[in-house]
Design goal:
4 helices
Amino acid sequence: MRTTSIKIIDIKYANFDYYLNPENREEIKSRSIRKQFVYEYLIQNYLENYQNTVKHWSINSEFWLPIYEKNLPALTPGHKYMDNYVKLTGVNIMTVIDSYIGS
């Protein structure tokens, strides 16, 4: 049986260096991670009111962080973060801007 999941994406303005710096860990936990818990909690409560198959969907969280390099793809998978609770993903701002200008 295939597991269905919901992905919660939170677009951030800080870069990988900020999130990977151990000195920022407590601030990140108190602000960003706590907000993710609230999002997940609200979605879980919503899903519990629906059919058995829907209420068992998994919920995954990602933080999308800016990258400013032309030769990278639009999305660059990062690694799991905060004990595998959140996945960090790089968003190549230059590629996104080029796609808007080129359209």
